[in-house]
Amino acid sequence: MTGLEYEYRSGIGTDIHRLVEGKDLMLGGVHVPYAMGLKGHSDGDAVLHAVIDAMLGAAAMGDIGTLFPDTDEKWKDADSGKLTMIVRTMLEEKGWETVNADLIVHAERPKLAAFKGQIKRSVADLLSVDFNDINVKAKTNEGLDAVGEGRAIAATAVTLIRRRLKRTL
Q1: What is the pLDDT of residues 121-134, one digit of tens each?
Q2: Of 139, 131, 133, which Cα lies nearest the Cα of 162?
Q3: Which of 29, 48, 72, 84 has its Cβ near the most Cβ atoms within 10 Å?
Q4: Domain 3-167 falls in which CATH fold?
C-alpha cells in the first residue's frame, strides 16, 4: 500500500463547577444570561474544560490541570476559549487535527435549548472544524446530585483527532 494514511485517536473529558453569584455564565465560549456563573480559577467554562481534556487525552498529552494549574496566577480568570486555542495549537504542532466532538452539558437550569446552536458554532470555530462536526446535547440530572439540585453544571466531551502518516510500500 502506498499513499497517505491517518492515525485516529479518541479522547474523553469531563468537568464540573459550582454555580455562584457574581460571575457570568460561560458555556462553550458563549455567555448564557443567568443569575449565576461557574466558580473556577479561570472563567469556569466547564464545556471548554471538558473539550480541552478530551483533546489532550486523545493526543496522550496530559490534562488541563497539569497544563493550566489553578495554583498559577497566570491562569486566574483566563478565557477558556484562549486556553482551547493554546491546546489546539499544541496538537497541531504534533500533526493532530480535530475530526469531531460530541458534547453533553449537564444542567438542571438554566434551560439551554436556545443556546445549543451558539455553543456548537463557538466550539466549531475554536477547534477549526465544520459546524456539522460538533454536536451539543443538554441534559438534566432529574433532581439528583449537585447538578440536579441546581448547584453545579457539568460537561462531558468526546473528541476524535487524526494525523496524517506517510506510509510507502
Answers
A1: 999 999 999 999 99
A2: 133
A3: 48
A4: 60s Ribosomal Protein L30; Chain: A; (3.30.1330)
